[in-house]
Write the structure tokens for this entry.
Amino acid sequence: MNIYKNTLIAIFLIFGTVGYAQPEREKQDMKDRIEAMRISFITQKLDLTPEEAQKFWPVYNQYRKELEIILGAEVEGHPRDRQRPDIDSMTDSEVKTMMEEQMERQAKLLELRKNYFQKFQKVLPIKKVAKLHDAERDFQRQLIRKLSDKDRGKR
């Protein structure tokens, strides 16, 4: 009886772990595909030479990590799908704190962009640096469009 019970528990643990790991793996696969698309898109839009790409991507990847830290603070504890707080139901003090936090985050983003503007100029010609922001925005639009089209296909 004890062996049967242990075997049953082991089976539940294995299938529970596999069931849990599958969505995480799919999520990571999706992130990897998006990152590959981003690299391809930006490389093409900026018309990076192999030498430029070799110097640019490590700097850009560090920029993205720092950007995610700042933006992650924005959504930490606030899932993206949750609506903005109802300002009318907040106290003046809570609204003021929320606004100050938003301004602080925007200041950090501006400082990050200024810092990396200098770093990108060291590895790319200025015209390619100028095109980077547009390339990032165009990639986001394309990605949203693709995901939206894919979502409509499921319905």
